[in-house]
Design brief:
Helix content is about 95%, strand content about 0%. By secondary structure, the chain is an all-alpha fold. One of its GO terms (biological process) is nucleus organization.
């Protein structure tokens, strides 16, 4: 592009030079016609060359625009591909986390059921043990009352025995 711009400037400066020369050579009419013919052909050549340069510049710009469109399309495709891969990866990780969370929730639920079952079992065991303790206390009270009654009976029997011995001694004596 720089080369074309430099070439364009050169041709423009030559064109301006030729214009000035045509205006400055008014002294000789014959040479003016031949000069002006030469200058006219030079100007036409310059004009043709400038048009070629402009055409090449236009082609080059069109090529660059086309190239940039292709590059942009490639970048968009690459970006879309990477975005799609990223979305898939995110979805996969999200699913994995959801699965892990679900399994943990299920595990916690099982543990909760197990703990509730153990609490019920322990509560039932405590009730059974409390009932047994009450029965044992009742039996202990019954036993103590029977022991007390037996001791009283034994005491009564001893006193009767002593009474009988005293009577026996009195009968024997």
């Amino acid at each position: 592009m720089r080369v074309l711009l430099i070439e364009k400037k050169e041709w423009s400066s030559k064109y301006e030079e030729l214009k000035l020369n045509t205006c400055g050579s008014e002294g000789c009419p014959q040479s003016r016609t031949s000069c002006s013919f030469n200058r006219k052909t030079d100007v036409e050549k310059i004009e043709v060359n400038l048009r070629k340069a402009f055409g090449l510049e236009k082609q080059r710009l069109n090529f660059l625009v086309e190239f940039l469109h292709i590059e942009i399309d490639e970048h968009k495709a690459s970006l879309d591909s990477k975005t799609h891969e990223f979305d898939l990866e995110i979805d996969q990780k999200r699913k994995c986390l959801d699965d892990q969370l679900s399994s943990r929730v299920i595990g916690v639920g099982k543990k909760e059921v197990e703990i509730n079952h153990k609490e019920e079992t322990i509560a039932n065991t405590v009730l059974v043990l409390d009932k047994k303790l009450e029965k044992i206390k009742e039996k202990e009270k019954d036993f103590e009352s029977k022991v007390k009654a037996l001791k009283e009976k034994e005491k009564t029997m001893r006193s009767e025995e002593t009474n009988m011995e005293t009577e026996k001694k009195q009968w024997v004596a």
